[in-house]
């Protein structure tokens, strides 16, 4: 998880056009936790959801989902069976109950370090500057 965190921090930084160590330097994903989730077969999935709609409060959540699926995101007020979205935005998502399974999911959550946990993270100045420059 630590090696993956470092790789993801570097890739996210570079994808945003920042130095490769930017995300690591601000320590916004310095702490990690792992959750292994088990969803049993649901005989009447149309009557329930496994989890209600929510957005994660972590900096980054990585999911390993089995082939059964069930994770949906809310995109333009419609639920879609995809696991990616626009540029690093925490989207509302839910997990559907399935008539097949059981379903297994592993979630890796990355959060700020305990030292920076109370420190607010604001907009990245380099990205605000780039946006203004591109809109002129």
Automatic annotation (TrEMBL):
This entry's Gene Ontology molecular function terms read: dioxygenase activity; metal ion binding
Which intervals hold domain Fe2OG dioxygenase? 30-112
Protein keywords: Iron, Metal-binding, Oxidoreductase
| Stored InterPro entries | IPNS-like_FE2OG_OXY, IPNS-like_sf, Oxoglu/Fe-dep_dioxygenase_dom
SUPFAM superfamilies, alphabetically? Answer: Clavaminate synthase-like
Q: Which Gene3D superfamilies does the UniProt entry name for this protein?
A: B-lactam Antibiotic, Isopenicillin N Synthase, Chain (2.60.120.330)
* UniProt keyword annotation of Oxidoreductase present: yes
Q: To which protein family does this belong?
A: Belongs to the iron/ascorbate-dependent oxidoreductase family.
This chain's protein is named: Fe2OG dioxygenase domain-containing protein
């Amino acid at each position: 998880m630590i090696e993956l965190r470092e790789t993801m921090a570097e890739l996210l930084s570079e994808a945003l056009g920042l130095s490769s160590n930017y995300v690591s330097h601000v320590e916004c994903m310095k702490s990690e936790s792992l959750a292994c989730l088990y969803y049993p077969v649901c005989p009447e999935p149309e009557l329930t959801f496994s989890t209600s709609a929510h957005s994660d409060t972590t900096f980054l959540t990585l999911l390993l989902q089995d082939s059964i699926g069930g994770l949906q995101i809310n995109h333009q007020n419609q639920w879609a069976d995809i696991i990616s979205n626009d540029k690093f935005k925490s989207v509302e998502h839910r997990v559907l109950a399935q008539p097949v399974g059981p379903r297994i999911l592993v979630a890796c959550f990355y959060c700020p370090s305990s030292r920076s946990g109370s420190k607010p993270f604001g907009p990245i100045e380099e990205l605000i500057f780039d946006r203004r420059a591109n809109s002129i």
